[in-house]
Amino acid sequence: MPRSPAPGGRLFLTDAMGAGRLGRRRLLFFSSIFALTAVATWFMADLLWRGGLSGVEIGLLGLFVILFAHVAAGFCTAFVGFYVVNRGGDSSRIVRTIPPGEDPPLASTAIVMPVFNEDVSRVFEGLRVVYRSVQETRKLEHFDFFVLSDSNQPNQWIQEEVAWLELCKQVGGFGKIFYRKRRHSINKKAGNVADFLRRWGRRYRYMIVLDADSIMTGRALVQLVALMERNPGVGIIQTAPRIVNGETLFARLQSFASRLYGPLFLAGLNYWQQHEGNYWGHNAVVRVQPFIDHCALPDLPGSEPFGGRILSHDFVEAALMRKAGWGVWLAGDIDGTYEEGPPTLIDSAKRDRRWCQGNLQHAWLLTARGFRPANRFHLLMGVMGYVSSPLWLLFMILCTVHVFALVTAPPGAVPAETGAGPLLPGLAVDLPAALTLFALTMLLLFLPKVVSVVVTLGQPDEVERFGGGRRLVVSALAETMLSVLLAPINMAFNAKFVLFTLLGQGVSWVTQRRSTEGDGTDWREAIITHGGQTVFGLFWGGSSYIISPAFFLWLCPVVVPLVLSIPISILLSKTSVGRGARAWGLFLTPEETFPPYELKRLHQNLTECYRHLPPLEPLRADYGLMQAVLDPYVNALHVALLRQRRRTEESREWFLQLRERLLRDGPARFTLKEKMALLLDAESMIVLHRELWSRPAGELAEWWRLAMRQYNVLTGAPTTALYR
Known about the structure:
Elements: E1 3-5, E2 11-13, H1 16-48, H2 55-86, E3 109-115, H3 120-136, E4 143-149, H4 154-171, E5 177-181, H5 188-200, E6 206-209, E7 215-216, H6 218-230, E8 234-239, E9 242-243, H7 249-273, E10 284-287, H8 288-294, H9 314-323, E11 327-331, E12 337-339, H10 345-361, H11 373-407, H12 431-457, H13 460-465, H14 469-502, H15 523-547, H16 549-563, H17 565-572, H18 575-583, H19 590-593, H20 597-609, H21 617-620, H22 623-630, H23 632-641, H24 649-665, H25 672-680, H26 682-694, H27 702-715
Helix pairs in contact: 1-2, 1-12, 2-7, 2-11, 2-12, 3-4, 3-6, 3-20, 4-22, 4-23, 7-12, 7-18, 9-11, 10-11, 10-14, 11-14, 12-14, 14-16, 15-16, 15-17, 22-23, 23-26, 24-26
């Protein structure tokens, strides 16, 4: 679709024909959703309409319309995606604005990576890979790299500083790679990025946001900036990162599913949304000035969790960018963009708990003034992504109540059976209509998967990258069966999360676990997390069996996974099972069979990093604080990165007492707040280092004497230096 920037850099359709084409696309898309929902609603109403509709039946019908429309939207996205792929691709893609072989000029770009108590080795080795990859494009002069830390654990903070310095020394990154630790972590990730933009944003035309687990190749980064230069009316270009590096069976399952089914859905999304796409918060390029001018997040009415500060900022920022007239594009066909998924079902649920609260907040914005209809639809689908779970649960519970009412109704109260006979013994249900509705629903749920497999099988090179046709088909069948087992469990999780949010129970900002320790989830964690689901499944299944054994059979696909949620969660979390599946050739992805150089380099670097010698057990909990006080090199680095603050006499006295306690008693009885206060105070860090090395050993806590002995052993300093 041809476009040109209007005055002020905003993006508009160039002519009525372009606007008409987008209008026809959206008419096809939304008309298809409406038509499918209307047909299914007609069948459902026909099933329920036996001598009038009761209150329960009206509730069932209303819930069915909402839920089926949500399912139909996903199906229609895949359907139009198949249409696009089958005809050889979409002519209206942002990547087509640069002809093959052309090398457009670039502009100053900041690559920012917000972190919060992350695995330091993974963060900086990932950054090393990205830096080297950009360096190999010979375009490094256009890029600066920023690690924006909000870590509130001393160990992570000090390790980040040391890792930053070592990385800069090794790659020659001084003046190109920067580290910043915020003193006050306000408004989480969104506040971290906003603080960076306020201080340094005007130095850059573009910003590329990475997550702590993101990897992007230099070629992909250069391509994104070039696309922004070529399209001055575009505010955001979002890539579609591929999930990689999964070791557990759960992680491999998610990686395989997104890689196999994703292309159809991405093509479908781009087909109808075009320049009114969405932003996912990472692996995307952002035009800095309009982002600063227009994307400040408003506070929502009320208090958290449903009001207050916006937790999920990315959808809202995309809507604000579009409101100001800037284009937001999805570039799902850009290669070289990766991320890592949660390793276990429980870790995925913890992440969904945060996303659930953030997406429910978007309900306030559905009627916000000035938002485009496409952005309202994005916000609505985000809300429905979580609200649909309690609605499905309510729908099935109402079905159970409805069946109970029919079974216990007095003779003659239930209408005579019609059609081919009752679907459930003793219940009047039109068998042909019920089976037709069931088949339509299954078609919408599973046909996109079948089509994705068929499309992939038609591409010999791609089939080889998935491990071959037979392995691809077997993996797709296994993924479908496992997804059927996971659907009720995720439904129960999300229903609980929505309920807790509505009851006012917010979430704290916690670190996302990106790898497993040991071999997966232990039984205690699984029982605590899934115990309620198991009990609920047993109660629901037992009650439905008492009501009607035939109805119980229809509920089995829902209640059986709930009952078995504990062993399912443990099995999927096993690294050994995931590696076994890989050995059998199951759930292979192109990034595994033919890994790009950047991912191979990351794996090799991390293998070397994780071979370090851990500190002695008594020192491990406060190893970062120990390094910052004891080691001259780390102490000097840490003090150099701190900002000097003016202090009152009261604060000087308080810091003096803290320093004396730390040297005399060690850090065991210090609170996190006290440790962080000392680490943030440059004068205290200088004094502590001097006093630690000048005082007699008898005036120091045993913890410090042990630390100094280990330090002297590791550095080769004479042990007698401890005893003056």
